[in-house]
Amino acid sequence: MPATRSRAILFAANLWLAAAPAALAEPPAAAARSTDAATIAAARDKVLPVVVSILNVREDFQQGEPVLSVSSGSGTVVSPQGHVATNAHVTQKGKSFRVVFADGRELPARLVGTDTLSDLAVLQVLPPKPETFAYAEFADTLDLSPGDTVLAMGAPWGLSNSMSAGVVNNPRRLLVSLFDDEADYEDRLGADEPTGRYYAWIQHDAAIAPGNSGGPLVDLAGRIVGVNTRGMIFGGDLAFAIPGPDAGDVVRALIADGRIVRSHLGLRLRSLKGTGQDEGVLVNAVERGSVAEKAGLRAGDRILSLDGAAITARQPVDVPALQRRIAELPVGAWLTLEVAHEGQRREVRLQTVAQPEDRGEERAFAPFGASLAELTPAMGRRRNLEATEGLLVTGLRPGGPAAIARPGLQPGDVIHRINGQPVANHAALEAVAGQPPAGGKPLVVEFQRQAERRVALLAPIHGDKLRTPLPEIGKAWAGVEVQPVTATLARDLGLPASGFRITRVYPGSPLAAGGARVGDLLSAVEGVALRAANEDSDDGFHQRVRDLAIGAKVRFDGFRDGKAQSFDVTLAESPANTSALRTLALTRLRAQTREMGFYDRAARRLPASQQGVVVDGVEAGGPAGLAHLQGGDVIVRLGEQDVRDLAGLQAALDAALAKGNGRVIPVQVLRGQETRILYLERYWLTETP
Fold it and tell me: Distance between CA 319 and CA 313 in Å, rounded?
């Protein structure tokens, strides 16, 4: 309960106490607090034990490439079979799910169904053996009033078993301010996946944060009166929940059928606010080619009745219930609308059709280096495209086949045909371009860019992601890092000469063998003075060395503590830089790895004999990221095998997966000055791509 409300209760109780007899056993203020706390505790204990945290390994797309990450949300167990109600945006783009219970138990879950139009989804927990779950129930009716106390439960910022208290501000709120045009409401809530079309929100001030999404809003009777979905970052504690009765209807339908079937007319409604009318609901927009357009409905019409029953929406908050009423009609049902326009009334008879998908599935297609979404008519309308099907380019890998096609494709292009074959979906694309083309010939891609129909030649790339760099020409190397010392800097420091001061000596390097130390000042090579161009660049030294021959015997002159020194060395070949080492992108781990080189060992102060594989990067939601591997780690053992190189890493992973026993696979890594043990979960290795 908010502090201001608590202070009001205490103030009232204290006034009552002032008039109370001295012999009263328990002060009324304490009794009021005790009763209030007991009521909240009873509601909490009824629901909080069945509130869960949801971990979603989701696949997003960045520059045409799939990237796994981890997101989290909240949910509530709502059936003895372990069904969990949550938000659709919590499960969005999910590849794998885990549910964490209040007691810390963690179980895998499957997606039963999702409904983006209501932003609701259902998961089902998969226990190792059959189990009956405790569960909470949705309220049957929305009987909230402003000022009613409510409890928000969930996992804000991933912190499970959290609860906050507040009051209902408004039980029927549309997110349309005094300054907004209600016609833009749906588009603001999601361009390609509109939500909130069929209900008004419960506005309350119980604190919620990212991670609370999908968690329950609970009244003092312990009923789920809402599903927390949205919050405001600015403007105080403004939170919004899907009404519990509406959510319960959708959740039960998803459990039964896995999907929601709705009717569609192809029109959008708005309230009469600002029109000067007080009867009916306004037709705000009509889709081209829709049932509504074919029946003669036009923007500006007012619908007065539906099958003889009068309907009116005077304010924006009245519209969702009418849209839901139409959506819940059986698909294929005939209905009669009474319509008014410019003083004339008429009847319009039309037949409903099934609600089409708002957004098509998005996938990455590696041979093209592009991410593509199946176009839907709704997506085409929003982009003002003629096309109603095809593959919409949503992202491109820089330098990838699609980006360098002739001409290059761009995000927003719609691919229609490849080598004359239509590609309306991912399956068709895979059938046409999933294998290397005969003779290595490029593919002819027909695509639409805005109003233009274009063609391009595209050479796809098939195969793994093992990268072997081209061999570099060897260069001479002295084995030190240096700091430039200009003539003016040498004078101000009191040094006997300008040149390059040694800041690091690599073990076993030519100058190390010649006796050089950190702090020595190198002033000449083979009698030719070393001169620093400025106080920032050491290129003058390294370029002089690289100009010499590998294996050449060279004399360096310099100073140590002001005394002249000379170092006779045999120049070696420079160790390979990181860019010259082989890399391997391990799909099963979703990690980028590479060979360990000389500079890796030097940076970590490891012996020259140390073997291993360096982790260059991990995807947060991949198995490596979930095991907490980090860029810079050196993998030295996986499972029961030592890892010496890239081939050894692959072999160790294959062996560990083939063995198939145990929940986790241990991974030993070098991190900084420590040797650590991490654990790969077999579940993530088998459930993520």
Answer: 6
